[in-house]
Amino acid sequence: LNYSKIYFLLNSFLNKNYPVCYILKKEKKVVGFVGTIFSRKKYHKKSYLTCNIHSWLVDRNDRIASSLLFEEIDKEKCLITVLTSLPRLRKTFIKLGFKKLTMKYRLILIKKFFSMQIDKKYKLSNNLEKINKSVSKKTKRLLSLYSSKYYQKFLFTNEKSKSQSFIIGKYVYKKKYLKTLNIIYCSNTNFINKNISHFFQILSKKFNISLCGEYFISKKNAIFKNNLNLFLTKNKIIFLKKIPHCFTFDLLYSESEF
Asked: What is the distance between the alpha carbons of residues 7 and 238, in angstroms, rounded to a whole number?
């Protein structure tokens, strides 16, 4: 990642209890560093410490000692993720004990739902004040951490059943003009799946979104599980270490551009 993106990540997700980086010194000179974002995530009601590595750089002549940086992170006994590794470093991460996994990016065309009549009991709001009044303490914390206009926040609700799902995403433009929502986090995937046509319909009509993207490792943990006719899937190699039992993948507290 470049400096501006690293600065943005640290400014958004700074955890004062853990380092923002580890440095490698040789004769009082800094010859390498690894950039980290520590956070806590819950998997099946149990809290786990996680560390996302967003950058790693060591002087060419000192790379033989680069593994020392990861030994320091290992002492925290946490899940470690590497989402933006260079292809030439893949063998290195495997030697360091990481597991190679394939992250899938699925891009779905949603404009096909625009002809349906909107069911008034379904609402999709991006009003932060309204969202803040309707969500849990955990979600309020996410709203605070993702307060930047760089991220989009939505609350999708069924006003009759009171079911809801909080969504964090980011707008990008495909082919320069196709407005796309890439989803970073979804609090209730089952609710979205059961009401996918209504969700896509409102995205299309109210927010003028043409495409919706999601990132996942396992199909069972994908947000959009229903069979969709018009979609594109791309693969990216990522690395994880010390994966907890019942782990569920998401992009919280990490980079969101690949």
From this structure: 22
Distance CA 28, CA 75 (A): 23
* Rounded Cα–Cα distance for residues 159 and 119 (Å): 11
- The beta-carbon contacts of 19-26 under 8 Å, at least 24 apart in sequence, are 22/69, 22/72, 22/73, 23/69, 24/58, 24/62, 24/65, 24/66, 24/68, 24/69, 26/62, 26/65
Q: Which amino acid is at 249?
A: F
Q: How many CB atoms lie within 10 A of CB 222?
A: 17
Profile the chain (258 residues) by mean pLDDT over runs of 10 residues.
65 81 92 92 89 92 91 93 92 95 93 68 95 93 91 96 96 90 94 92 92 92 75 93 90 82
Give the dihedral sign, CA 192/197/200/201. negative
Task: State which H helix or E strand residue 73 sits in.
Answer: helix 67-74
Q: Please give the model's pTM, rounded to 2 decimal places.
A: 0.88
- What H or E segment, with its residue span, contains residue 207? helix 196-207
Angstrom distances, CA of residue 46 to CA of 42, 56, 60, 213, 241: 5, 30, 41, 28, 18
Q: What is the pLDDT of residue 258?
A: 64
CA angle 81, 224, 243 (to 5 degrees): 25
